[in-house]
Amino acid sequence: MGMLALASLGSLHTASAEAGDVDNIRLWAAPDHSRLVFDLSSPVDAEVFQLDNPSRLVIDLTDAQLKDDPSSLNLSGSAINSVRTGVRDGTGLRVVLELNRPIEPRHFSLAPNDQYGDRLVVDLEYPGESAVDDPIDPIEKMIREQEIAAQRAKTEAVAEGRAPEEAAAATPVDPAKPHPKRDIIIAVDAGHGGEDPGATGPSGTREKDVVLQMADRLAKMINQTPGFKAVMIRDGDYYVGLRQRTLIAREQKADFFVSIHADAFSSPRPYGSSVFALSQSGATSETAKWLAATENRSDLIGGVDGNLSLDDKDQVLRGVLLDLTMTATLNDSLAIGGDMLERIGQVNHLHKSRVEQAGFVVLKSPDIPSLLVETGFISNPEEERNLRNGAYQERMMSAVLGGIRTHFERNPPPASLLAWQRDHGRSTASGEYRIQAGDTLSGIAQRHGVSLSQLRQANELASDSIRVGQVLRIPSS
Ligand SMILES: [Zn+2]
């Protein structure tokens, strides 16, 4: 999240166009593109074209002077081998990038915002290496998949002499085949990144850095939990478009999507954590509305414009199927969010005690339950310190994982290992339970249908503190 700045009122008219200075050049290397950003003192016209033998990209800026030394750019991992600059036509600036791989250039200008002035953005996209192979609209794809599945079930039912309606009740896991015991996939999204730092704390802590650290920790904990697997939406300091984030989750067949953020406000006072789900019709509070607007503004900083809203698709896609799916998805999101808030409340103050709802673009997957966690206020000095602290990050992410696990242990997807364990009584049959990251004693008691005091007694526990790997005896209730 970032702060809103007041737009300057009025504008100055100069008789002649002033030359724009290139004050600074920034570079980010993402898996599927490299992004160059020219920080400008005023807007300039640019022409971008490619040359062969050797492969080069030429960026011509009309009436511009270079005030930065491009030799200080860290080119490692990017598509660029070297950068040369020169004066062109007396007043123009030419930047020549020597390339080490095929690229497709794309460039656009960005108007000043509260963090940066005028910018020219040049993206070097790698053909065929998009993070998402299938650029098809996720909703259309989902509807198509569901229609195909429904049609297949109907055909099979008819072939087996059952009424087609029975097909709907058929379980997705064929009992004749071995159970797939698949992992539950959790997409972990570190907010912001690259050219979009997110919010900045009073001591200079950047949201994009602390949320990546926390996302890393969460992914590690998930991968240590049997039956779960993490997928990182970004694993470095680069920007991923908001819609792209949900597409990557879908591509990786995620069962759940969680976006990690840190909140900010114009005063240092507000504190606490909050959890957000998508709202179908308007944000639950004015704050939520404002926050959604600022988080979604990321894509303006990142340079992605165009239609990010699902609303414009409604004409084509409004249907019972979509409504049902989204409602079910949202209900799941709210349920997981409730479990998560309960755990987070044991780590930090809650800014809002209920799951808030707002129109965050990253939460708009029609069939993947999705939550956005504002882990704390980076604008509050004490919470800024906490958000930088490794032990605190670990506790916060453990709470997030706890909420996810509680939900999926209660409602495992049919093909998952957890479903198989539940159906074969594996989690309790032996009368023992091995403690995993994110567990609480009360949570374990609840899941096994015993009281907290029974559980304490059976294990002769003096306190409720437990450690990962510890094995508890589960008393028969
Ligand atoms: Zn944020």
Automatic annotation (TrEMBL):
PROSITE patterns (UniProt xref): LYSM (PS51782)
Pfam families tied to this protein: Amidase_3, AMIN, LysM
GO molecular function: N-acetylmuramoyl-L-alanine amidase activity
Main location: periplasm
Subcellular localization, as worded in the UniProt entry: Periplasm
Domain LysM: 431-474
Record's signal peptide: none
Region (Disordered): 155-179
Cellular component terms per the entry's GO annotation: outer membrane-bounded periplasmic space
Family: Belongs to the N-acetylmuramoyl-L-alanine amidase 3 family.
Protein name: N-acetylmuramoyl-L-alanine amidase AmiC
Organism: Halomonas binhaiensis
